[in-house]
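Slide 14.
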Amino acid sequence: MKPNLLYAFGAIITLLLPTLISAQAPTMGTAANFVLFSRNGAVTNDSPSILTGNVGTNLGPVTGFGNVNGVMHNPDTVTGVAAADLLIAYNQLNAAIPTQFPAPLLGNGQTLTPGIYSVGVQVTTLSGILTMDGLGDANSVFIIQIGAAFSSNANAEVRLINNAQACNVFWKVEGMVNLATNTTMKGNIVANNGEIVLAVGTELEGRALSTTGAVTSHGIKSAMPLGCGVPVLTGPVAPNLGSVECYAIFTGSGFNTNSGTSYVTGDVGTNVGITSGYQVSNVNGMIHSAPDTSTAQAASDLNAARIYLSNLPIDINLLFPAQFGNNLVLTPHTYNMNGAAVQTGTVYLNAQNNPAAVFVIKTTAGAFSTGTFAKVILQNGAQAKNVYWLVDGATGIAGFSEFKGTIVGHNGALDLAGGVALVGRATTTSGALTVDSVNVNITPDCGFLANTSFDAATKSKTVTLYPNPFNESLNIVINGSEFSNAEFTIYDTLGRKMSTSTITNQVTTLQTENFPAGMYFYNVTANGKTIQSGKLLAK
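Slide 15: predicted structure.
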């Protein structure tokens, strides 16, 4: 009987062994909502940082931060709960039983597989490249227990491969954490009784959390990790634009004036005043020179959309409107800037791989303007048709800016300066609307060419291209199912083939950021015949 009992006992141990030694992620609770947090210590920043996630402390000041894609928390009830949750997570990490014991120098080509690692009570350094291999399991967990201070050398890097996720990587450190210049870090850092210092150029996909100690950032880029059950952001429900969705440039009351050579896809008009200066040949839509039934309906629909946007609950207040831009990254939310806002440089809209995600950026109690060459860049599935800018006041988009989304101004003039490229709409409920040598293209929400507001000449085209001139992307609209699977080819002026694509959808977007500026020719063929050809300009 004894041998049989031993075999049975051995079999049970064998079955239980993977469970006993496999790493389990701690319960982060509300601490997971913070990208930088201290349970007891100051949280400070001394040069521009790009952060996605809440920032705060439960005991101490929060200072030096510009606009953050999250909520800023000085000590309050939220930080009190997060402080308690962080302590629970720390205790769980501390209680994990290690099975592997690497040397205190991590990296330099080293690869770790899922598990619990301990380097003991030794100062530990990350150098070169450390690879974490998930072995194909997106639920694999890595816990690295460090019993003393932890630092990195300049340009050190943690890489994740084979489905390893930053949300499942945990660094439990007993002491100070000091990440050197241009470190690329992955995972959740939990420092116990130690300060966290993040040097210039540090990129952290994860969180930096201290139980007791300051958290200091010096011009970093950090975002809370996705995955591990983190809800997919959808943003608010988009407004119903009604008939105004077919207008590219519209004011409910005021003159609508173009100077220079402007190219427009969509209708143009005003409901009170005169529309002038637009060339019929350059407008792929209807020019409403004087108010009519269409402009009256558009004015009503625009005001309804404005009221809806105005009443949307705010998720995140951007606290420094005058510093808007500067490579700020926004995710699907309703944002508010309570005062005059000025965009300098670039704003990135990151849909986090959800193409249906909606962004609303509101500027209340002040005008909105941009600097020259300002940009709005869409990332990870973000679409211009899902971006809305509400401005309670005047709007000015400066020369050569590249803007995305529908601008809904209220009781303020709207100006698009020379060289502006807008994918979306420029609208205001009331105020003069002036444009000068711009390129404005509506997004294809309105039924596009099939919509009755487009004139007969426009409807007679089989293919429409916009924007033209193009820059980062080129949209191809096929009007008619009989031309599905058309082939679209771009040639340079020497006749060399630059790009060939099969068009299977009514609206297809080509990425063209690598095209040098200049003139090109295109050809569209379907069923073995050329159905359209023409010129394109890249800028």
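Speaker note: The CA atoms of residues 42 and 60 lie 5 Å apart.
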